[in-house]
Design a protein that fits this description.
20% of the residues lie in helices and 32% in strands. By secondary structure, the chain is of the alpha/beta class. The two termini are 43 Å apart. Belongs to the glycosyl hydrolase 35 family.
């Protein structure tokens, strides 16, 4: 059997038999435009790191069951080879569950929505699906291992499983599946720094690592008390944090991050910065959390207050952490610092109103009929919107209408007039009946599938029903609207499918951006409420006036010389202009450090 490049003895990590410190940073190829992969890897190396690590999101590669893709932005092998060209080792974290604030924790919606599915367990149908995915993925990773002249030196087993469950047979199955498909490099588990979490996720005979953001000496002591012969590895050092819509922008000061990074290094530990470069949740790939009371959808930006900013700029945190890393004995010679990427000059673009909201959405998808509302999963829809419509007969007078099992947010229209916005699992509104049928429409938005915790895999749409008083409403038509899988032609057709709104309410609008030479920019939509922005037919992501994020990062590679079309689908009210900025606005900030108190 091929000997792994990384080994350990007497608590010391070795590379090819010599003492080694793994200094890694997380950089996700799926959150960075492929045209910028090489640039971001070069910046990571300039930070003083010798390794890059990345998750592999299953749903990004197999959005539709059986259609597995490794091309374009999904070309994992190209990303890994580019890292090798920069002199970086690579750690691959294939899951199958990744969390990562990514939609559904990386699990495909077609899998989690299957009736009776039991996720992240030894449930036979789940293991069979994982094995089929690993049959495609893992041999590709195996071919990139250091033992085969590639840069991959380690592979993670599952991901923070001890925060989820205690099915050790399942974790062993994942380990064995990696080995059976050719993984010979170092295997390790990663869990929180508590006995409970380590008990649930660690495996005898495999390196146990920890994930944390503070108190490194305590984490090191815990791991060494349990695994005395193993090196101390912080598989994720949270030097920043992510954001939810409606909250503040989470930051961590350079001094605080550098202090705890220094604590890890002073313990003789190896480390991976999470994130070294966060990137962007393009399209509809942002996940969500649930705090036990309500959904907490994650914003489009995944800047994460990382040392390398969302657009690649080098931040004060970059220099604070670089000083710590390059001060180590035996650290690599400091690499030249790349200049910050170029930016377009600020400007304003007038918008042209196109199709009104409901008319456009009705024309954009064929209706599906059913006696009761169908879920996103029953409609084979992973993300986006569903327009639910029915025509209940309402006697004269006011009537309470209740929606149950709503996931996540519904705009309610009666005879095409807006009457309510619902964002709770069970919510009600009042309709005045006249003795005739009314046209009831609910535009339901999936705001991101839960990526962490016991509600992982929860369905989307109207999962209960709609009642007038105690009587269920029957006879529904549903129009599934995937949005992020629309082709440029489909997006343009939807924007032209109906007359423009005359009252400033929601709908489609476009703006033209003319550039001589493409470069990055940050897009703001003042006066708009909530919606989605496409650039030349590519869905950039969500925007929402509740913040904290008020600009969307637009990578230069999405633009072309000449005219570029920005298309907006606004759900509430259209603004008059699009504004381009030369710096991001991620909202009012607050200091945040996650701990395991």
């Amino acid at each position: 059997m091929q000997r792994s490049t990384l080994t350990y003895a007497d608590g010391t990590l070795l590379r090819d038999g010599r003492p080694h410190r793994l200094l890694s940073g997380s950089l996700h190829y799926f959150r960075v435009h492929p045209g910028q992969w090489a640039d971001r890897l070069r910046r990571l190396a300039a930070l003083g790191l010798n390794t890059v690590d990345t998750y592999v999101p299953w749903n990004f590669h197999e959005r539709t069951e059986g259609d597995i893709r490794f091309d374009g932005p999904r070309d994992l092998a190209r990303f890994v080879r580019l890292a090798q060209e920069e002199g970086l080792d690579v750690v691959v974290r294939p899951g199958p569950y990744i969390c990562a604030e990514w939609d559904n924790g990386g699990l495909p919606a077609w899998l989690t929505g299957a009736p009776g599915m039991r996720l992240r367990t030894s449930h036979g149908p789940f293991l069979e699906a994982v094995d089929r995915w690993f049959d495609e993925l893992i041999p590709r990773v195996a071919d990139l291992q250091a033992g085969r002249s590639g840069p991959v030196v380690a592979v993670q087993i599952e991901n923070e499983y001890g925060s989820y469950g205690d099915d050790h047979s399942y974790v062993r199955h994942i380990r064995d599946a990696l080995v059976a498909r050719g993984i010979t490099e170092l295997l390790y588990t990663a869990d929180g720094p508590t006995p409970l979490m380590q008990d649930g996720g660690a495996l005898p005979g495999e390196l146990a690592a920890a994930t944390f953001g503070s108190r490194p000496a305590e984490a090191a002591a815990l791991l060494r008390s349990r695994r005395s012969g193993e090196p101390f590895l912080c598989a994720e050092f949270w030097n920043g944090w992510f954001d939810h819509w409606g909250e503040k922008h989470h930051v961590r000061s350079p001094a605080s991050a550098a202090e705890d990074l220094g604590g890890i290094l002073d313990e003789g530990g190896s480390v991976s910065l999470y994130m070294a470069h966060g990137g962007t949740n393009f399209g509809l790939w942002a996940g969500a959390n649930h705090d036990g009371r309500a959904l907490q959808p994650t914003v489009t930006s995944y800047d994460s207050d990382a040392p390398i900013a969302e657009n690649g700029a080098l931040t004060p945190k970059f220099f604070a952490l670089r000083d710590r890393l390059t001060a180590l004995d035996g650290a690599a010679v400091r690499r030249p610092l790349p200049a910050d990427p170029p930016l377009l000059a600020p400007r304003e673009l007038p918008v042209t109103r196109r199709a009104a909201l409901l008319g456009a959405l009705r024309a954009a998808a064929r209706p599906v009929s059913a006696p009761l509302p169908l879920s996103f999963e029953e409609l084979s829809l992973a993300s986006g919107l569903v327009l639910y419509e029915a025509e209940p007969l309402l006697p004269p007078g006011e009537h309470e209408v209740t929606v149950t099992g709503l996931h996540d947010r519904a705009q309610v229209f009666v005879d095409d007039a807006p009457v309510a916005v619902l964002d709770r699992e069970s919510a009600s509104f009042t309709v005045c009946g006249t003795g005739a049928r009314v046209r009831l429409a609910l535009l339901v938005e999936n705001q991101g599938r839960i990526n962490y915790g016991p509600l992982l895999g929860q369905g989307k749409g109207i999962l209960g029903g709609v009642r007038v008083e105690r009587r269920l409403v029957h006879g529904w038509t549903m129009r599934p609207l995937p949005l992020d899988t629309w082709t440029p032609r489909e997006t343009a057709r939807a924007a032209a499918a109906a007359p423009a709104p005359s009252d400033g309410r929601g709908g489609f609008a476009t703006a033209v951006l003319s550039v001589a030479e493409p470069a990055d920019t940050f897009v703001a939509l003042p006066g708009f409420g909530k919606g989605f922005l496409w650039v030349n037919g590519t869905l950039l992501g969500r925007y929402w006036e509740i913040g904290p994020q008020t600009t969307l990062y637009l990578p230069g590679p999405l633009l072309r010389p000449g005219d570029n079309t920005l298309t907006v689908l606004e759900l509430e009210r259209l603004g008059e202009r699009v504004v381009l900025h030369d710096r991001p606005d991620l909202g009012p900030a607050e200091e945040y450090v996650e701990t395991f108190d």
